[in-house]
# Entry
Amino acid sequence: MVLPPFISKIPMKISLPVLFTAPVLCVVVFLSFIAFTEGKNTANDLMAQNLAQIHDHIEDRLDDLLNLPNRIQRINASLILEGWLDLKKLRAWQPTLLEQAQAFKDLSSITWGGSDGTSVGISRYPDEFGYEFSIKDEQTGNKLEAYYCDMHGRMEKKPRERLLWDPRNQPWYYAAIKAGKPTWTDPYARVYKDSISKILAMGYVQPLYNTNRQIMG
# Structure
């Protein structure tokens, strides 16, 4: 076959590489696009999986935090009703409350407020070591005494604070009486450090009744 003169003069060393490399370039570009798309999809899938795992972890953590106070309430209610925690010997509660505070570090305080105005509790505050053990009984009269308690349960002999205080006037006590069942309180301010510093708190409260349905605390 005789090529037309204008075609026969085109150098074959230029036209042949172009003819062979053009399909290769197309394939490389196409495969690169596929690889980019697949990589993007894989990254999106991994991101979605990580977000789902983070969401599940947060949800499980919140469930634990929200259910923990309820479990502690049931335990202490049983201990009171069975006589292991004696309402007439509130100072003897200190080892049990300390053990609970150390075992459940997500709790900031555990407090009993009696219908007779007596009270006992243990608290921890942000960025502080040790605990505060508070007591109001027949020995303190109408005052609440707060003692520093170290990690081993050793308390100072003299209270760091003495103040007029009645659990029945506290927002968490009102909430328990009003609900008549375990419930969360509205947010309220907790005062500490000589009644100067305040932190925002929410309490989970449970009213305790005797066999005659009279409120015990």
Observations:
- Residues 87-205 form one domain.
- The beta strands are 109-113, 119-123, 131-136, 143-149, 161-164, 183-184, 188-192, 197-201, 204-205.
- The first helix runs from residue 5 to 8.
